[in-house]
Design goal:
The complex is a heterodimer of chains A (about 170) and B (about 300). With about 170 residues, chain A is an all-alpha fold. Chain A has helices spanning about 15-30, 45-55, 60-75, 80-100, 105-130, 140-150, 150-160. Chain A is elongated and about 65 Å long. Chain B has a domain at about 185-265: Rod shape-determining protein MreC, domain 2 (Thrombin, subunit H), CATH 2.40.10. A 6-stranded antiparallel β-barrel of chain B has the order 1-2-5-4-3-12. In chain B, strands 6-7-8-11-10-9 form a 6-stranded antiparallel β-barrel. In chain B, a hairpin with a 6-residue loop joins strand 10 and strand 11 (about 255-260). Chain B is globular. Classes of the chains: A mainly alpha (about 170), B alpha+beta (about 300). The interface of A and B includes residues 28, 81, 91 and 133 of A.
Chain lengths: ~170, ~300
Amino acid sequence: MQTTFTSSRILLPVRPWFIALSLIVALLLNMLPTAWWPGVPDWVALVLCFWSVREFRKVGMGWAFLLGLAMDVADASLMGQHALAYVLLAYGASSLSRRVLWFPLLQQALQILPLLAIVPLIQVGVRMLAGSDFPGLGFFVWPLVAAVLWAPLSLLLLLPQYQPVEHDANRPI
Amino acid sequence: MAAFDHTPPPFFKRGPAPLAMLTLYVALAVSLLVLDAKFHYLDLLRQALAVVTHPLQQLAHAPARGLAQAGEYLQSVDTLHDENQRLKRTRLESAPLMLRLQQLEVENARLRRLLAVRERQSAGGQVAQVLYAARDPFSRRIVVDKGQQDKIVAGLPVVDDAGIVGQVTRVYPFVSEVTLITGKDQAVPVQIVRNGLRSVVFGLGNGQLELRFMPANADVQEGDVLVTSGLDGVFLPGFPVARVLKVERDSSYSFARILCVPVAGVENFGEVMILAQREAPPPLPDPAEAVDGAPEETVVKTRKTRPLRRP
């Protein structure tokens, strides 16, 4: 069986404001009261991971650091706890991006899962070094949920980049 | 003018190497972590960032708050009627006490003056609405809607209608964070009402509190009520804190294991009261001078030497 580069479908260039908008919406989703429930994914990490894989030139560790600081303030956690986790996530995602995009969406999710699992691991490590208690295994569930959401999220976030369906016999591509 | 610019675009423009950037950002994050965890230097940075995140948080919590308000509005008349009845009854029940309280306070003040004891400070403060619980799963904190604008400072005690809830730990321009007494290692100096035994109660982080370092034969019973002793100079004395839930006396340990539950609705959402700053307690005697001589002399000595030591 031949591997297919599923992202080889020709996409329009991404609009920077759409990236910013999606990240702000993710930040808002993270601040919802429902973010308390176990298994609700860290939306910022997920969207950041998506853009780091897709557009690692545009969204990189700088964005990750700033968003991490914002989450630290919003969550009242230690300053730099989210920032450190997100920066490592963005680095991992951008270094894997050339490989990950060759796989179909479901297999991409499998490769994204360990990347996302870095985030809670780093956070727990940092907080336990600072003297907090272990928060329970429920804290590590969300990367699984996020990996399941990878395929629908990819389709959703790529929606504005799909070409309009108009078949032109004279156009070469 | 880009169309007339004939210099070719640079090939392979990549900026600094990713590994170098990673090192830089990780170093930044780790230094922030150390500064925050060890030295608590970052309050100003937090306040600056909160200017951006606070409106977003308000926005995110607006739907939930709207739903709650709608729910309250649609609450049936029966429930409200019941609640009204109950409140009237409790008011009547506590009326005799309340009516005499004023007279008792005056009498108490007069007696204290007669005995030349320092007068008790009366409690005052501001009512604040609990906005939400901080999402951090490692600590127990709530956010209330009073901040620097309302002259809140870090360290003020927070109470509800039943007892102590916690202490203000971080202040932002419009909101402030309250660390609950059940937070891990959050300490409150307490006194047992029944026999006046003093101790310190520590939060366990799971919604319970523990009286630590009490000898196995200490006179603590299940159901004892703990009130603030006021020895810390932060909490006013006499506020209920917790009730003893379980006392385990194991002869193989020298300390009893005493678990308590908070009296106040610590994990509930609603309204709390941030008490005003307590008057400063008298200065501690200098430990070096307290060793020799009678305590009275020491106090006199300390008072004499204190102005000289301050530059």
